[in-house]
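Lab notebook page, bench 4
Experiment: in silico fold of construct C2
Operator: M.H.
Input chain length: 176 residues
Purpose: comparison with the prior construct
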Amino acid sequence: MATTKANFVGYKPYMLPAIIMDLVKQLDNSCTYDMKIVKHAERKTVSQNAYFHKLIDILRLEMNCSFTRMKNEMVASYGAILSDELVMLTVAPDVIREWERPHVKYVSSETVTDKYGVKIEGHWYRLYKNVQDMTTYEMAKLITGTVQECENLGLDVMTPDEKAYLEELLKGNKDA
């Protein structure tokens, strides 16, 4: 089944009727289509991404752990939740912390029986957004929390100007 995908980003509501009518003219009348319109959110900036990864490197050296583990811990502590629903995986918490993705936070464990009657240890996790999918606001929250972790360890990682800029981002709209 072929998928037609149209990506219109950053349009004002008054522009949508003309755009939609133009799109409708291109569609196959024998098919059924789904449409989704979501509020536009600014994506994180390249400088936010670079700064976050610099902080992760500083923290991991101080904490003597892997870059991936430290990044997962910060995303699971200060990142944006992907879904309110938990997922069960059979991967142990110590193992999954070393994975690049998914970013998860361990919630609890329980023994479950699979469809073949075998008992397995399942672990419930909360999923977090990948850093690349965060908005400017979500990224500012993640950086603020990560900076706080650095400061708790006595590491001075931000100038007063950088702190003021980050606070300004956090004052803005949560959807920005």
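Observations: The two ends are 35 Å apart (CA to CA). The longest strand covers residues 103-113.
Next step: discuss at group meeting.
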